[in-house]
Task: structure prediction
Amino acid sequence: MDALLRLLALVGEAYLRGGGSVEHTSGILRTRPVLTIAVGGNNWTMGWRSSWPQYPENDDTGSSVA
Result:
């Protein structure tokens, strides 16, 4: 859990410093903005109704923490 909070803090800091890019993805009726922030070699993607966070790897098993 601490690793996730640390990564979320890094993403927040990158966002506040202007890091990230806004892309417009096509939907059925219109385009939607999607924010992508690269932190530590991983891309965090946040859209209007969904997000795709990059969870850290668990050191013991090699699987994701989530």
